[in-house]
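Q: Can someone sanity-check these two? First one:
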Amino acid sequence: MGFLERSFLNDQMGLMARPREFDTDAALDGAIAVFREHGFEGASAQMLVDAMGISRQSLYDTFGDKWRLYCSAVRRYGMGECAAHFEALRSGLRAIEGIAAMLNRVVETADQPCLGVGSTWEFGVSRPDLAEVKAPLARTLREAIAARVRDGLRDGDVASDLDPEATADFLIANISGIRVAGRGGADRAALTRLAEMTLRALR
């Protein structure tokens, strides 16, 4: 994952060849925290450099402008979320257990702001360069979920007439809904019920 992130930054951000005096990934994590909480428009340059622990000049030299930093942050955040979803999906002896684990993870973290949902709310598909960052992540997650639904069909744990791709879309939509509900103040019991009803719809 670290290699892919570095390759993306080299290709997309035009990083300078000179050695840096800070950890690029750690700085990006600081930017992610700000963008998650405040969005793109609400994040000031001072907020970002304070959270990243770097100077404004280092920010511009390394990441380009604020928008390119945002795209890098969305990509790194999305890669981390996908990795966590994949780990959950692979857990359990049966596919349905992995799907349940993914939903439970979302419930457990739903009170935290999601940069993926936030970026969709803030920009939709209005920015092609952001869409290019998000599209392969969304496609990979959809494929992974659909594959587990197929496994569930083979195991006889989900309804036999379910379309794997449509079911993956359904699950992703419900994941977003649970996260919005969590940020809106829904308690753990309410979020758990949403996850349970989502899982029940597969049977």
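And here is the second, same format, sequence then tokens:
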Amino acid sequence: MKIKEVIVVEGRHDTSVLQQYFDCDTIETNGLSLSEETLRLIEEARDRCGVIIFTDPDHPGETIRRRINEAVKGCKNAYIAKNKAKTPRKVGVEHARRKDLEEALQHCFTYTETPAVTMTMEDMLELGLQGRADSARRREWLGMCYHLGKPNAKTLLKRLNLLQVDAQEVRAQLAKGGFA
């Protein structure tokens, strides 16, 4: 499978695994050591062929993703669930199976720079996405449905607004997951 965009990953092990399965080019951030030079390279790649940010489903990976999205507008984002990218001791893109990597890359998307507000924190409370005993499970379900990883309430609200998903659509997805 040829991937047109350059994939931004955290390290050489991620690159090795992706290139084992796909015909692709990568840019490595070297973990949290994301330099201005690397950001300029990502920006140039975005202008030439597009960029997919595919960092690990952990706190450092989310920090790197946020820094790149803030500095280089218009990048696509691919997410993989933590349970699909881990060993007993480690979490990372390099630990995922080919099928799960393919699915994540097929469902990548670009954030809009100034999204309209389609969901509010009040909607999140009403839908049980915050403040209930099963809120984390509800958010995890939506993260799987929309390929957003496993976000906390604030991050989920931001990502749903960026994708322009409204409360009615979320309610329908929750019903499909048995969270009526």
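A (reply): Looked at the second one. Residues 143 and 149 are 5 Å apart (CA to CA). The radius of gyration is 16 Å.
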